[in-house]
Amino acid sequence: MRLFGAGAVAGMLPRCDDHSGAPSRGPGRLRARPGAPRAGRLEPGLHGFGPRGRRDALLYVPRAPGPDEPKPFAVALHGAGGTPERGIGPLLEHAEDRGLVVLAPKARGRTWDVILGGFGPDVEFVDRALERVFARTAIDPRRVAVEGFSDGASYALSLGLTNGDLFTHVIAFSPGFAVPGESVGSPRVFVSHGTDDNVLPIDRTSRRLVPRLESGGYDVRYEEFDGRHAVPPRIARAAVEWFLDDA
Predict the structure, then answer these.
(1) What is the pLDDT of residues 209-241, one digit of tens each?
(2) Which DSSP string corresponds to 45-94?
(3) What confidence tens digit (pLDDT) does each residue in 58-87 have?
(4) CA 208 from chain center: how many Å?
């Protein structure tokens, strides 16, 4: 894996606060937006949600609070070489109890596009999946998160800061870096990292990354824990509560 490190966030790149109502174009920009569902609503449960079913994406739809009530929503991004099943794991345990819709796409390559050189096919795939979710499920636009672990956390930060007019919250479990395009909006950010991480050492990553996010004007909650490269259950629960209880 090519590790850009937290230095990639220095200066945060130009921030654009576009209030025109239409998503701007540019590297890493997503066009899909929540709205009134216009197609057949999805039944509660876990669905294969890509062109090749479960291999491409998973979508979890909770039973509560009901089919017509707008629900909170999260995109869950796996680590390098991962699967939708692994990507959705940290959030799935909490999705039913908290009425959370979760989309877990699979990277088009061995990891996410920006890590391999720049935004591209993964942005396009996620955007198409979002359009399908928003067409068939009532989503609360005030609670839309992007979450990830490891490479997925780096991608969540990069994609989330580039699309802060869509994502209200970004959850990064053990990230390595952030390389947003033009930063848009001001999503709130949750970062966690193990003090004994032997894959993405904390001193080279989150302990540099978090101060730079804060200096860029982002509201960051940072959690260190005794452990390695993982998402402990209590950290996953804390992140979900932070996201969903944020009024």
Answers:
(1) 999 999 999 999 999 999 999 999 999 999 999
(2) EEEE-STTGGGTEEEEE-SSS-TTS-EEEEEEE--TT--HHHHHHHHHHH
(3) 999 998 777 778 999 999 999 999 889 999
(4) 20
